[in-house]
Amino acid sequence: MKGAAVRRLLFCLEELVRHLREHRSVVVLAVSTITVAFFVLGLFLLVWVNIREMTQAVSDEARVQVFLKAGLDQVQRDAVRSQLEREPAVESVVYVSEDEALNRFKARLKDQAALLEGLGTNPLPASFEVRLRQDPALLGGLSALAERVQAWSGVETVRYGREWVDRFRVFWSFVKVLGVGIGGLVAIAVVAIMTNTIRFMIGARSVDITVLRIVGASPGVIALPYVLEGVMLGIVSVGCAIGLLAAVVMQFGPTLEVVGGFLLGRGGLQFLSVTQLLLMLAAGAVLGVVGSLIALQRYLRWAAG
Amino acid sequence: MIQLYHVTKRYGRSAPALNDVTVQIERGEFVCVTGPSGAGKTTLLKLIVCEERADQGQVVVMGRNISRLPARKIHTVRRMIGMVYQDFKLLPTRSLFDNILLAPRVAGHSISEANQRAIFSLRMVGLEKKRAAFPRELSAGEQQRACIARALVNEPPVLLADEPTGNLDEELAWDIGELLRGIHVRGTTIVLATHNRALIARLGCRVITLRDGAVVKDEGGGGETASLLS
Q1: CB-CB contact of A282 with A276 (8 Å)
Q2: Which of A101, B14, B130, B183 has a CA positioned 20 to 30 A from the CA of residue A152?
Q3: Is B111 in Cβ contact with A7 (below 8 Å)?
Q4: What are B94-120's pLDDT values in tens digits?
């Protein structure tokens, strides 16, 4: 019984090789079509990844300055610091003393620094420079954070680019909605193209399936070569699409970095991560299986002719 | 061997292709099913080989009620039935030998056993020397013989033939008839759907005549169906 199952499996693999050899042109056509579909999806992902990288780089610049009341001792300052560090949105806290603030101000004034020499005492307060975590989504809670910190004892005032942050939040929401919308549509199109391509491919071999049914092949023996072919088709097509994407990035990446470099993240133009590439390959394989099973459904029904 | 009890089959909303048909075919019988086009001959065979499911009634093949058979088990019935078609249904991209090899391979036989079976089967229908030929290189009669070889390669107890002589001239038709008679002599139950009256007359077997989906005559048999009908 086990031997028969192994022999049937061997038969299925032989059939797979035979399909690929006999229907070479159909297979090439299917791979090309699915490659183009996944290339478009990959291109979209690439744009999305870089926009996200860009917004992260911008959000990285968002800092909150917490000015302290005059005359705080070390213990009071540390209390404010540890409170700030407990906030989930806070990445790091740097203390800027009155003297350091003055030095920075002088450095910024450069040639006009002499103007400050008339000052008897340092008018600048000590502060904490708070850097936020690199997540554009956290910017939404920035106003609330500022208001909360403002109420703490020892804090004089809190400053951040409110107008800039509000604009950025609107932009980020827009990007998200657009991304999910377009990404969803592209993904649906890819699923439709892939399943229909496989359906067309299997439809071209309906005679083979009919004959296999006549001679008493089980649904598993009929389906397995086609399912394996679907998986191979998905993986090979996605592999080709990734290769094309890499070629496009290598070809146009440097130009894009020059033209839009100020918008890109610190690392320049980003390619898809290994996880994203593996997910694309897995999606190709899964869609191959689903497409094959959908196409085979009509042939495996009870009364299919 | 094969029993149909009050079987009705309808395609869409048209008149039934088979209407309350009751037929019993015994082990080792040679039965011709005849009647004009549209009488229900092909539908009868399709019901036996599980290509169609009866709307009403029961179809029992070798003790198994196939009306209730789940889709995943159909192949177990088909392996017990060899099927011959008017249009041969040979795969054009495979040699004759590879076409015949398909059946034992899907049944799980080893390659050497499958090869032996295919050679034996081709020898039985007289096509051993054409094993490397492709279907397009064969005459209609040879293609039909190849189709019979494929149907017999797993030595099924039942052979169904749907108008196997429909595309052949009188002489070739009789060749096929002779071949089927030889197979029957070896103990295979044969159900032959045909409207070739001359062939039926020469075969001299039991004849079930269908008209408008109903059995109108059953002659030359042991009277089992007649007793069921009465």
Answers
A1: no
A2: A101
A3: yes
A4: 999 999 999 999 888 889 999 999 999
